[in-house]
Amino acid sequence: MWNEATTLPCLGISPQFLTGPILAQTGKLELPPSQEVMTVLERHFENYGRYMPLFDKRSLVKMTIDLYSGTGRKKLIPWAAINLVLAMTYRIIDDVPVEEPKLAQCMSNVQSVTTELMGWSGDILGLQILLGMVILFQGTTNPQLAIVLIGSAIRLAQSMGLPSRRGSNDPDESAQRRRVFWIAYILDKDLSLRAKAPYTQFDAETDLELPEPCGDDDMGILESCTGAIRFNYLRARSELAIIQGKVHNFLYSRTAQRLSEEQRAETKLRIQQLLFNWRSALPQELLRSDKLFQDFSTISVHFVMNMYNRYLECLYRIHGTFAFDETWIDRARCYLSPAVIPTGDDGIDGRINQNEISPLPSAWIDCVEHSRLGLELSAFGRETEYSTWLHACCNLSGLIVLLVNIIEFPEQSSVMSDWSLIVRIRNKFDQMNAKASKEPFFLLQVAHELDRKATGQVKRLAHISSLNHQEAAFSEPWANPDLMFL
């Protein structure tokens, strides 16, 4: 749990789904009452399924009705699809804990047919279920499962021709195939970057165009409560996923290791520009937490939060400030050394010895400014347990960035508001730590130690200010002892 032995902390910090009885193995494909299922499906398509259109509502509802009205044996794959949508709704929308029996049962049911899903080629339903499993497993204690599943899902999509324009002659079916492909593409790039593992879908092997900016069917479109702002979330995430692939190539590919320093600098600048252009193209209301909370629904805020955290991860990684970058954390821990910051009395530390520590990254100001929005969204965006785990890596990165900024620049006017954010996020991590592990998270320990050093620098500045005020007071003529008795 976030200790120094953790190999993939970004994916290994959350609770795992419990394993319940697997009904498929007994041949009893049981489901909740039909009315209960239909209510859950409706809630799914009004919320998560509206913006991440993995399933087509009309097709899934018809399949569900057919499944309940059938007199014979229930079909395995449709049964698994219903269980998957139930699990997604319980976990993502209803904030059901992973240990809740009804959620654990649904996940066990879906997992029981994994082999059949990977070999399913009759339609894209098996692929859709695999992708839904990836979405749910992104934040569990078993990162390898999500990584293996996305690789299998992408290969299944490729075998069914989803990366190609040549698909079904039915316009509705073609539109759904394109949406499913781009969701798979997004997940592939997400997991590839977070796990530093090669992605499966190469850009050169698809000729599909990005989702239309303003789709006619409203699928993947985020809309403000007033209707004044309409934004294609699926397109923006697809565009960002393309950049995520370039970040991965730049940092972790074999080819990148052979680049000269000049070539690396040029590549980094190009990626920085791509990230800048992508962020600049977003509606500005999405980049202000107050406007976002005021104008958009909670589920919309969660989608923007997810998207912005993926952007922050790219930013942190290319500038070397990601919390799970060993070089960066080693540098941050240098502040704990008395050679860098002399420890003083009453919690008032000495000035930083800049000769004993490497310089901050060149884009430090951008990292600090952009991290604030990420932490504001997490602190005030009414996160569920699912989204909390999903965004934990970037939130911890932002927490450490703000702490380092206070240590380096305790005189900035933003210190008090930044500290308010830090306290909220740190308390959230403390609660997560207490619930998920008996051992303290290593990086959370580092954050607490940096917090003490940040406090020491702020106190040092306050102490100097107090001394200056006293000196100024005694420098006034009326405070001169020689003049007091004249």
UniProtKB/TrEMBL annotation:
SMART domains xrefs: Fungal_trans (SM00906)
Could you mention a single GO BP entry for this protein? DNA-templated transcription
Keyword vocabulary terms for this entry: DNA-binding, Nucleus, Transcription, Transcription regulation
Domain Xylanolytic transcriptional activator regulatory per the UniProt entry, residue ranges: 146-217
List the molecular function annotations (GO) for this entry.
DNA binding; DNA-binding transcription factor activity; zinc ion binding
Q: Does the keyword DNA-binding apply?
A: yes
Q: Looking at the keywords, is Transcription present?
A: yes
Principal place where this protein is found? nucleus
Query: Single GO cellular component annotation?
Result: nucleus
The organism's place on the tree of life at top rank: Eukaryota
Location in or out of the cell: Nucleus
Q: What is this protein called?
A: Xylanolytic transcriptional activator regulatory domain-containing protein
Name the species this protein comes from.
Fusarium anthophilum
